[in-house]
Amino acid sequence: MNLKHYSYALATALSLACATTAAQADDHKQPKESAKEFVDRVEKEGLELAKEVEAAYWVRSTYITGDTGVLAAKAGERSLAFESRVVNQAKQYKGTDMAPDTARAIELMLRGSAAPAPDDAALRSELAQVLTDMEGAYGSGKYCNEAGECRELQELEAVLADSRDYDELLDVWRGWRTVSPAYRDDYQRFVELGNQGAKDAGFANLAEAWKSNYDMTGAEFTIEARRLWDQVKPFYEELHCHVRAKLSEQYGADKVPLDQPIPAHLLGNMWSQTWENIYPIMEPHAGVASLDVTAALKEQGYDELKMVQTAEGFFTSLGLPELPESFYKNSLIKKPRDRNVVCHASAWDLDNGNDPRIKQCVEVTEEQFGTLHHELGHIYYYLMYKDLPPIFKGGAHDGFHEAIGDTIQLSMTPSYLQAKGLIDEVEESPEATLNKQMKLALEKIAFLPFGKMIDEWRWKVFSGEISVDDYNQGWWDLRTEYQGVAAPVERSEADFDAGAKYHIPGNTPYTRYFLSFIMQFQFHKALCEKAGHTGPLHECSIYQNKDAGKALGEMLAMGQSKPWPDAMEALTGQRKMDASAIIDYFAPLNAYLKEQNQGRQCGW
Ligand code: X8Z
Ligand code: ZN
């Protein structure tokens, strides 16, 4: 069910939609319907069904109970039935003569969704159920320790972020991983059902379905993603080497040996996916240019609402529209105290662009402030492609959708933060630059192998290369290979550590984030050029620049109406994804790391 994070055009139209009865649907199967008529009808029916399905999913995600589970699974089942019908009909038009826009629409319909619908109705029902159950189990997961004290994910994450006590970190790291074994069997069943759906839609397996969304073949996409990873890998290895050395100083070489992968619980994040929370350990020049935005937000009495409004203010400063009133009325930005919700942040495109919302259990921290910008990036995509035909509503590819809010964040320079009163003064010195770059690299560079390996694991699981008996071993093999991190305690096949990360039970493809983290620097560079910035890229902010805003808005308004290289070209002049911009951006830090690592044995 594709709609959970943000409903892409096609995903919306296909996987939601259609309250039509079986009889009506059969009527529509008449072969005389032209391709254009077919597309128009699917869009119309899709919108109708979407209303109901989106409402059911929203309520489920913001109010997890058995009852909302029943309603969401039923809605999911209907949307899968619609998708199945649409795909099977769309196949008939493939290769026939039609206008380019219609051909694009048919092509989009035939792409694989995150969980393609099996032809068999009973299997569709089971698929909808298993997805609803897994996400609900994750969203209501709690770790109760031996003393009987129970904590939710966000509380555990806060410990991971702030504590430097090895054993305390280990307790919460292990604790959160007591939640996921409960749905390991569900996941295994999901893999079977998803593969069946993928086959019925014409793919070899679910991995191939997922790779079909990038205007190239699956094999080409695999190579493309690998090419990008190869571009950034040497820089990651320098960062890893230096971080490991510093952690070894902090915790002792017995805990962090200098020739081994880093224990996964010491990197400031539940999944070791971004490492900015250990910045205090890593700060190159102690005390230079204070970057404690969390403290500033708290001191200045920011609350959830003010954080959202401030983030909106960045987008409107570019000349983009204000958020509709309904956004503030209908979004969930504060964690309810009396019920379980899926706290993992998401942005939703309800009512065909008229009722966009975010769902985020906002806390007053810099990290959450960043995530708010990320979510608003999705929302502004929705707003800008609102008037396209429903089937063209979506990111140029899913990495584009993920990259917009993050691109904006790259403009939150010290000068911007000072303008907002969030830091006192802007210190300009090579030392200040290095500190700033270190903090950002701990977020952006550290993430890259994580962003890559999640779907490496799933691709292998879907293709059968990793069997159900090896889920956990296969997971840790990839964690070690890509990230150079290791489980701090022995794990077994009774565990389901992949399932401790939201996007596994939530079934959200993850390569999109890997692509996004690379493309957002490409976008930032292009926007800075539009804004007339000269000088190093890390000093550029497009805040208040209407030329940059116009260029961004124009790309967003294209949605997925054209192959993604067209959208990329419209903004950047390039037709390829490319990691040169992210590497160039961090040139000062790269030099520093190489110097620091001299004489060290890097690698694991
Ligand atoms: O899931 C998200 C967003 C929602 S699309 C909050 N992100 C990934 C994650 O949290 O794992 C953003 C960056 C990576
Ligand atoms: Zn996102």
From TrEMBL:
Zn(2+) 2 binds at H374, H378, E402. Keywords: Disulfide bond, Glycoprotein, Metal-binding, Signal, Zinc. Zn(2+) 1 binds at H374, H378, E402. One of its GO terms (biological process) is proteolysis. Disulfide bonds join C144-C150, C343-C361, C528-C540. InterPro entries: Peptidase_M2. GO terms for cellular component: membrane. Chloride binds at Y214, R512. Residues 1-25 form the signal peptide. Transmembrane segments: none annotated. The active site is at E375 (proton acceptor 1), E375 (proton acceptor 2), H503 (proton donor 1), H503 (proton donor 2). GO terms for molecular function: metallopeptidase activity; peptidyl-dipeptidase activity. This is Peptidyl-dipeptidase A.
